[in-house]
Amino acid sequence: MPTILFNAHCLSMPLKEYLASLNDNPYFGAGFGLAGLGVGLAAFRKGFQFASIAFRRYYMITLEVPSRDSSFGWLLQWISVHATRTQHLSVETIVKQHDTGRITTHLDFVPSPGSHYFWYKKNLIHLERTREKQMLDLNTGTPYETVTLTMIGRNRSLFLNIIEEARQMAIEKHEGKTIMYTAVGSEWRQFGYPRQRRPIDSVVLDKGISEQILNDVKEFINTPHWYRERGIPYRRGYLLYGPPGCGKSSFITALAGELGYSICVLSLSDRGLSDDRLSYLLSIAPQQSIILLEDIDAAFTSRELEEDQQTTARYEGLGRVTLSGLLNTLDGVVSTEARIMFMTTNYLERLDPALIRPGRVDRKEIIDYASHHQISEMFQRFYPERSPGEAKLFADEAVGKNDKISMAQIQGLFMMYKSEPDMAIINTSRLNKL
Prior knowledge:
- Helix 4 packs across helix 5, helix 12 crosses helix 13 (388-401) and helix 12 packs parallel to helix 14 (407-416).
- This protein is an alpha/beta fold and 434 residues long.
- The strands form four sheets. Strands 9-8-12-13-14-11-15 form a seven-stranded mixed beta sheet, with helices on one face.
- The protein is 42% helix and 22% strand.
């Protein structure tokens, strides 16, 4: 094998001749070429990486939606309609309850975890659905997920359109329905199936009560600026009190349907509910919802009993809501705004005055035993073919034979004689037995 000898003669050669001799050496030329190629490839790789990063940063837009966000469910439903050509699917079972109570199921396919592509308004969108195997939702036991949408361009309004379309699709799915939420752990979870909205005029209260509360709530919803300009916390509290079975909960359900709101039902007597958890749940309640605290007298009756409750809770190792904790949640420094809260009780006299003072309860309404007006209105609602005179006759008979009648008892009698108003009139004496 030829060798290159560096001797004194070589050192004395002119530089031009020396470079020419190296150029004639095939081994030197091949090595120099490979080195140059390697340097060139490395430079190209670095340049490509830099260009790719710059392109993604300045000419691509990405939207990331975690499963903890409320829009995640909307987006999956929207994707099931638009990304129909993907080959890797997950099944999603949709359960629907009809007005008759019959339940039907429908299967939808959504893109499974992984990469997918679909077109939206002539834009190619890359969908990446990832699942965190090491992180689980402690309340549901399901792993956390993230959906990432990526597309070329800088028009973020396309993503806003997608989210808005997904939201509208979800609204249409539950249009005409009232969604009930209940507290599970540290989150609100939908309870049962969405219910058909109940017309507000189907709940017959005494004269003017229903209209006054409805107008008051609507005025509150439509005037946030009034509260803001005067530095008043933007929240409203209502207390409905009166005997059981007179329509308190039914009216709140109908009111939510009239407003298009959902209902978040919270039981303060839940032994796992603490002051901190109560405050957190109210701070994350779904938007456009009524928070309902039913039978608030069952949780505690007065400030004097609070110390006994705390002692019992410590002894049992349970987190119980205290009266002071509830008061701070209602209007303390940690209380939330843009909130509509209804409380109900059968025994107003058992409640601590501090709980129902203005600022915590802004309006109190008694929902009492059925009046002559209510009974007459209910009669005509069940038997529209009968005259107002007959409705008054029935009301006279009912009130004359019974001192205290609840609307639940009146409805129970009409349910016994659905198509026999004469029998309902004859049997008014049976109201006390219902």
